Amino acid sequence: MKYPEFEQYTQVEDSENTLVNKYVTKDGHIFYVEPGFYYGMLGYKDKKEEEYPRILEAIYKVIEENEKVVFTGNYETPFLDKEGYIYREISDISDPLCIFVEDKSRGSDYGD
Known about the structure:
With 112 residues, the chain is an alpha/beta fold. 29% of the residues lie in helices and 16% in strands. It has helices spanning 35-47, 52-65, 90-94; strands spanning 10-12, 21-24, 30-33, 68-71, 86-88. The longest helix has 14 residues, at 52-65. The radius of gyration is 15 Å and the shape is globular.
């Protein structure tokens, strides 16, 4: 899948992880973007569009400052288990910026 927010980086095929996009920067930093993380990004883009550029800037800063990053949808169940990589969820990016989206998803009100 193409993620336009990362088109300035070189996308690299990873035959072991075909569901996760792998990128390399000009400085040789490697990072992965799991689908769950990307969908989280899109949620912020949809609900907090005016803040989305700040979120992208913070993501790019994480990439620049770290040689190996996995942007994951969930720490507890990541798609990838990569030794030597740091893991970041979308809330790790948005929370320090004080950009919050209320999660209104909840279980059904109806009993079984």
